[in-house]
User: Fold AAA family ATPase from Streptomyces flavofungini.
Amino acid sequence: MADVREREISVEQEHLDQVYRRLEEKIHEAEFLMNDAAKRSQVGTPGALAERDAQVFRAGVHLNRLNNEFEDFLFGRIDLLLGKDGKKGPDGAYTAVEPAEGAVRADPEGGDGRQFADIAETLHIGRIGVLDADYSPLVIDWRAPAAAPFYRSTPVDPGRVVRRRVIRSKGRKVLGVEDDLMRPELTAFLDGEELPVIGDGALMAALGQARSHSMRDIVASIQAEQDLVIRAPAASVTYVEGGPGTGKTAVALHRAAYLLYQDRRRYAGGILIVSPTPLLVAYTEGVLPSLGEEGQVAIRAVGSLVDGTEATVYDSPAVARVKGSSRMLKVLRRAARGALERDATASAASGGSAASTAGGRSAQGAERAGAADPQAPMANAHQLAFGEEGPEAGGEAKRTTPTRLRVVAFGRRLELDADHLSRIRQTALSGTAPVNLLRPRARKLLLDALWDQSGAAGRHSDPELAAELRSSFDEDITSEDDFLTFLDAWWPELTPRGVLTAMSDERALNRWARRILNPGEVRKVARSLRRAALSVHDVALLDELQSILGTPHRPRKKKELDPLDLLTGLDELMPTREESQWERAERLAAERTEYAHVIVDEAQDLTPMQWRMVGRRGRHATWTVVGDPAQSSWSDPDEAAAARDEALGTRPRRRFTLTVNYRNPAEIADLAAKVLALAMPGSTSPSAVRSTGIEPRFAVVRDRDLGRSVREEAARLLDRVEGTVGVVVAMGRREQAARWLAGHGMGVPPGERSRDWGRVVALGSLEAKGLEYDATLVVSPAEIADESPAGLRVLYVALTRATQQLTVLSGERDEPDGEGVPDLLRE
Ligand SMILES: Nc1ncnc2c1ncn2[C@@H]1O[C@H](COP(=O)(O)OP(=O)(O)OP(=O)(O)O)[C@@H](O)[C@H]1O
Assistant:
């Protein structure tokens, strides 16, 4: 058998060598194109320059792909029977292909009923397609319709596939092959020799591998039910549900690569993948480059969807529940209008007037603080643990709204008092237009009121003269610095951050949240907004505020010219350089706020406000939404579902369910199923595809020393697995757990120094979303479950992270029995 294996490896090696020879030829071609393009740069006509840019762009992309060091560049092969004429299935894949009549023949001797056939075609599958010089395929791109049978064929429905082979290689060397036989009843021949079968199949080989801190692609072992999702047509909404470990994240990533391959032009508009945490972004972001796709896909954590924000702080569950709820929408709308008038009551009460007068005090500086200030205290983000409220944003100079406007025009002193100003503001604010876009309207209303007061309106009966007089009146006033300073203070340009800061004032928030939030909620939300860092839930509020406020139109800055060129007149002679195709692509990617396709991972966790934020990024997009309601950490799934439906609109949905758990061995999946039964009675868990024979371990905190027990149990797991260990604790303990694992304040015994603690990670329960480890230590199930209304579902997530071993550590609160099994996990 070893001989056969070696022989089969050398057969694949020969093929790989041929592929590399061809790739080298293609690299030379691409280099030639680049050089040729460089030469054309000598020719200066605009047409030639544009053509050169386009050519360099294409050749550069090509070279980049070919030079990319693909590990296992070639990974698959299928051996096929002679087929009927191929027909495309509804999704573009050749699934309907069946063997041709007579492709399989019965034993000529009649003997034991065995069947025989000849292999008519062999296809190699890889990360990108490579054609030979005569255009015959040496490697087929895994996303091409012809590659679909590699994934879709099963022994139940084999189609033309007799043998599916996964080829393992590193660089240019083939290391091994694993075969699955799709038609075991058949004796097949290739070039007159019987087709050999090597190994136990690729899936089991892939699943048994140790995990690292980044996810691997599954391109060599995608299963049939997953392939249906990956290749589903992109129209409307593709909706995928499946329990933990069913490959939802993997499928979502492969789908992005598939869509790009299938319609690159359409998806030049960008694909956005929304992920729940920065940890999951970091874990998954290597998958697309390994599939040969980069650039057009943005993977963003839900706390980083607004440019320039990277929120990692979590609000306490009570605060998150309010901030995530769609009740906030009305509060924000009121706040965005109310923030214009910050501290009006306070300043009126103290008799203060920040009015701008023609020769009197000016409101200078009034606009610098508070709502209009982009540098308001929240900009100063730093990491805080869940539940901590952090330092108060004190010491900020409060912006006060001027309560009087005095100007001198046409030799008369004119004045608008607080009541008048307030009426003008109300008139300007009527309607739903974005607040920042209403400033010109407010300015116009002020001028109208001053004009009325001036009495100049009746001076001329001739309409032309009257209009002239009015426009010189307006000019007179608006050219005064004091009027402009007043306007800036009275109707400042608001920023989302500024309004959020204004909402940290409990009295103000109370006004804006009247009959929407109760006083306790107002207090908590205002307090949470006074901390220095943005929370993950604040980001959706910022985004909502941005759309409520609007961005005032600013004339585009004129290109700056070199003063010397201006002096010498050279600027007239120098043609302005056209933006190159490359620069344009980069600029568009940087400016992109809407996408052609949006993929939402862990969709069950999006709050209503987050759905609104994500929805704004895909107003004209097609969608792939993957999630598992049983893992939802949001307390009110019905409210979130309504917001989701609003974001997705009336687009039709195509639903898929994934049913097999590839991550957890049966021993761990069975334990997790007990919590699922409590968290969502009646729902079924996915079936685990393998078992290890290793039961979960139940440990109990020793000597009431939680920290030391955590470290001991983590060390024990480190010794038992080759890859990573995740220690999952309640959110309130995440920083404490990191200190325990670092050994702070504990004497570290000599034996421990040799352990590789870099393989261990401490995680708050909400951060464990989507991640996986070789081994997991779940600390105090009761603590995790009690932390929020969705606590049992969060615990279910924590228990389903391990690919090999699981330890559950219980404290007193878990009420462990004699075996250490906590109350929540008993029968
Ligand atoms: N066809 C496959 N071949 C090999 N490995 C697979 C396959 N499908 C899934 N896996 C592996 O199973 C694990 C779980 O996959 P993934 O994280 O995508 O699941 P999930 O459904 O998103 O889980 P969760 O809901 O818990 O976040 C990953 O390690 C993934 O690589």
User: Anything to note?
Assistant: The pocket of adenosine-5'-triphosphate is lined by residues 203, 206-207, 218, 221-223, 226, 242, 244-250, 628, 631, 662-663, 770, 772, 800 (CB under 6 Å).
